[in-house]
Structures are given as structure tokens and as C-alpha cells.
């Protein structure tokens, strides 16, 4: 069935492609954060274990929202590790770094997702896709705040 929302199929496809990259970055960050939650050690264990849990829980909800927006635009959402690896802007960290390095890695991951989301704004703005712009704004707020909180632990 055709979609008649005021945004052409090509434009919706461009937005869906950008959202697919955002989904891949968010899912990769989710996996990394969950891994660090399981494996963190040291004097900051309790603080980081709980913080990482809050962060990966929020990311799990985010991937659902992003995927549902892709579907609302009329396109399939990527959902395999292989697709995410191809679409993601960053790679997972192998092994188990120390707690300080985990924090640095997660700051970089949060900032990567911010850049991916920010890069999609011009496409959404061009076609007045307020729903995608709203989703992007919400994601920017969460990731910028999380990056700030993580950076604060390093000072």
C-alpha cells in the first residue's frame, strides 16, 4: 500500500538510511555498554556497574524507537549483527579494558552517536519531517548528557 504523508518515497528512503546508521551506532553502543556493565572491576565498581546498567537500558529502548520510525517511513529496519557492522560508524572494543578506559570508550561512543544523529538533521529538515527531527532531538539530549556525565568521572 502506498504511503501518502507528504514526504516522497525517495526522501523517506534517505531518512530511513540515515536512521539505519543511527540504529547501528546505537545498538553497537548498547552492546559495548552492556559488556562493560558485566565486566567492570575496581574501586568504582558499584558506581559504574549501576551507571552502565542505566545507560544500556536506555539504549535498548532507543533502538526500538529508532527501528519503529524506520518502519513508519515504510522501510525495513536492519536487525542483524552483519547489517549493524556494515552500517555502524565505530567498532566494538575487544577484550576487557580497565574502568577508566571503559569510561573513555563510552564517551567516544556517545559522541559518535551524537554526530550520526546530528548529520541526519538536514535531510529531515529539508522535507519537514518533524517526527524524525523530534526523535533526533531526544537522542541528542540523552547522548550529550550521558557523555558529559561520563567525562565528569574522568576529572
Automatic annotation (TrEMBL):
Pfam families: Ferritin. Residues 18-155 form the Ferritin/DPS domain. InterPro entries: DPS_DNA-bd, DPS_DNA-bd_CS, Ferritin-like, Ferritin-like_SF, Ferritin_DPS_dom. It comes from the Bacteria. GO terms for molecular function: ferric iron binding; oxidoreductase activity, acting on metal ions. Transmembrane segments: none annotated. Belongs to the Dps family. PANTHER family: DNA PROTECTION DURING STARVATION PROTEIN, GENERAL STRESS PROTEIN 20U. This is DNA starvation/stationary phase protection protein. It comes from Chitiniphilus eburneus.
Amino acid at each position: 500500500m502506498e504511503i501518502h504523508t507528504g514526504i516522497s518515497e525517495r526522501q523517506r528512503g534517505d531518512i530511513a538510511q540515515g536512521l539505519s546508521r543511527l540504529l547501528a551506532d546505537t545498538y553497537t553502543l548498547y552492546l559495548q555498554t552492556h559488556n562493560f556493565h558485566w565486566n567492570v572491576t575496581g574501586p568504582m565498581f558499584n558506581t559504574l556497574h549501576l551507571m552502565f546498567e542505566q545507560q544500556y537500558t536506555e539504549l535498548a529502548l532507543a533502538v526500538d524507537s529508532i527501528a519503529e520510525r524506520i518502519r513508519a517511513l515504510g522501510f525495513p529496519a536492519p536487525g542483524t549483527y552483519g547489517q549493524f557492522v556494515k552500517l555502524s560508524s565505530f567498532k566494538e572494543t575487544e577484550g576487557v579494558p580497565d574502568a577508566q578506559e571503559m569510561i573513555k570508550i563510552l564517551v567516544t561512543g556517545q559522541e559518535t552517536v551524537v554526530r550520526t544523529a546530528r548529520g541526519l538533521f538536514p535531510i529531515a529538515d529539508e522535507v519537514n519531517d518533524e517526527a524524525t527531527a523530534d526523535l533526533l532531538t531526544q537522542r541528542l539530549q540523552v547522548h550529550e548528557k550521558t557523555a558529559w556525565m561520563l567525562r565528569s568521572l574522568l576529572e
